[in-house]
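User: Hi! I'm working on a homework problem where we have to compare a predicted structure to a textbook description. Could you give me the structure for the chain below?
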Amino acid sequence: MRRVDLGWIRIFVEAARAGSLSEAAKRLNLTQPAVSYQIRRAEAELGVPLLRRLHRGVELTEAGRQLHEILSQSVTKIDALARTFQGAQGPRVLKLYTDYAFSGLWLIPRIHRFRELHPDIDLQVIATQHTALRDLKPDDTAVVFGAADDCAMPCDLLLAECVVPVCTPAFAKEQGGDLLGRAPLIHLDSPLAPSPWFTWSEYLHRRGLDPNWRDQRASLHFNTYSLVIEAVLAGQGVALGWRGLVDGFLARKILIEAGPPPV
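Assistant: Happy to help. Predicted structure tokens:
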């Protein structure tokens, strides 16, 4: 007798538990047609219908009920045994290299979503001012600032660079109108020349303004973006806010836009 292909077993068990092919597909991270195909394949292997299609969902046939009684216990035991094996080997570790601002402003508020999807993975975040991509190991990942052409390995765009001046509502009220003309500007300095990111000079130039048109003696300068944001939140001036990093502050009205975004 030809051996039965067991690749459909988990899909059948999940469909029986869920009572819906669509819900089973969602739980298994598959498409609904893929689940339907595997069920039809199982029925073809066994020569009997296993599920009865209803207007909403599915139910087990008598043959499907008998099969489910056997397979559901086996799948549960296999999963439990696999967890035991995995626990004995220790948790999987994903190392993520990134800078201080991204890890604090973008990553940390979203980590819980990753942990819900991957509870068996330990996430190790290594924050550093500059990540040396050449030093990454094959299983490491990194979030870095720069152009795709500057990266010597496969990469995906996470956030496009778009900046807008930001300050606190209280600071804007205190300063009155024309914030860019009167308020202290908070700068993010770069060790490289020219700077790889937007600067106030670049922003003003793109807005058609002379970067030297105002007295800069009251400006503040920091070498990390985390300190720039701390200074803005403390009401020390106006800074360039990178969309994606400051969106949470803008949504909660902790910061407001203090000028138009660049073209």
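For your comparison, note the following. DSSP finds eleven helices and ten strands in the chain. Residues 146 and 197 are 8 Å apart (CA to CA). Good luck with the assignment!
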